[in-house]
Amino acid sequence: MRAIVCCLLLFLCIGCEANFLHEQRITVSLQEAHPWGEASHRPLWHTLVYTNGEGLRSTIHLTEGQNTITLAVPRDSLTVLCAYPLSYLHPYGGFYHPGGNDSVTLTQEQGELAKLLLDSYQFNPEAVEHINATYLGEEVGDASLLDGNTLVISLLNGEGIPPDLEHYGKLEAIVRDIPAGYWVPERISQQPFWSRWGEDYSLELEGGLQRFLNREAALCLSLYADLKKGEYLSSLSKAPPW
């Protein structure tokens, strides 16, 4: 019996040491208040998705108002993290680099680049895991204003940042015939606006889908901007509950 107990203890010790050698515990936090949470005086819940070093992505639900979590991530590769408010809104993003700070703050500024890398992880995990995301972010700038598909394809092929990578300006959109009220953007980089019946409003759109919430009318204005084509689509729907 004593021999069996000793073997079990030895096995546990070896397992703990193996985890320590291959994993790093990091603290992930959300410090930026979401505009919709501030407008409604109620925090949002999030779905946290991150690369796990095995070619797959792990998902964790963060409850309403939960802003911090501790994770075990691969010690020797880049970990890409995205927290999606209400599971699908514009993400907060961040990165853990091997040997880097074990406290990672997710921000909307890094959200678009993190989403690009997270979405492409399944196609070439090794390429993504060896990217220097800090350098990449400094070189490409605002990922919501560039040709993301071209960038990702080049990175996955091991070719780095393409020298002819296209950057675009924001797209002007004229919004008309929407209900009156105060419309709050999901993106911190955009501004809220008041609408009145019969008036047109000019908005500057970044690439992709972006939403504006009218809390009082329980409505959501969604606009999808294709910066390459210089076109946008808009739709009005019920606001998401939370």
Question: Helical proportion?
Answer: 10-25%
Query: Total helix count?
Result: 6
Describe the global form.
Answer: globular
The stretches of 5 or more residues where confidence is low (pLDDT under 50) are: 14-18
> What is the ordering of alpha helices and beta strands?
HEHEEEEEEHHHHEEEEEEE
Strand content: 25-35%
Distance between the termini: 55 Å
Largest sheet: 5 strands, antiparallel
Mean pLDDT: 92
Strand order of the largest sheet: 10-9-12-13-14
Rg measurement, Å: 21 Å
**What is the strand tally?**
14
Descriptive key words:
242 residues, 4-stranded antiparallel β-sheet, globular, single chain, 5-stranded antiparallel β-sheet, 6 helices
Question: Can you walk me through this structure?
Answer:
- The chain starts with a helix and ends with a strand.
- About 2% of the residues have low confidence.
- Strand 13 and strand 14 form a beta hairpin.
- The strands form four sheets. The chain has a five-stranded antiparallel beta sheet. The protein has a four-stranded antiparallel beta sheet with strand order 3-2-5-6, with helices on one face.
- Helix 3 crosses helix 6.
- The protein has six helices and 14 strands.
- It is globular.
- The chain has 242 residues and is α+β, with helices and mostly antiparallel strands.
